């Protein structure tokens, strides 16, 4: 199966969930036009309160639809945008990508993966018990975060459901993803 965009979601407000749209303009160095998390500097409210001058490494949030399938199977009402992602993907192991991997989306958009999304307590407000399914620990104590990856926009353009995604891995040593 080829990797594709299953859904595109945007919210102009700092809300937990985002709404699916038919197309979105992705702006170089910013994020999705009209999305509350687009910007050169950090737009996440908690992080803005700490230091509003921090570079925005979370311009675009990507989450794999396979996780949605699993969570729905466990009885949670998850659909595209429910967990705040901008792009819902299918056919790509997002969590296995290294830092710096580039994603070519559609005909012109290029995203660079910056790290993992760190799931927060609001997930349980959306659906009680959901947090324990997306945030866990390995037997050795390593924290496992499953709520997608964050990226910055290197090249903008239009993005829509059905767009193909191509992965370009960075040259040299590959750093595993860390929360951003």
TrEMBL record:
Xref: Pfam families: MOSC
Residue span, MOSC domain: 19-168
Family matches, as InterPro entries: MoCF_Sase_C, MOSC_domain, Pyrv_Knase-like_insert_dom_sf
The organism's place on the tree of life at top rank: Bacteria
Gene3D superfamilies: PK beta-barrel domain-like
Listed GO MF terms: catalytic activity; molybdenum ion binding; pyridoxal phosphate binding
Entry protein name: MOSC domain-containing protein YiiM
Natural source organism: Oryzihumus leptocrescens
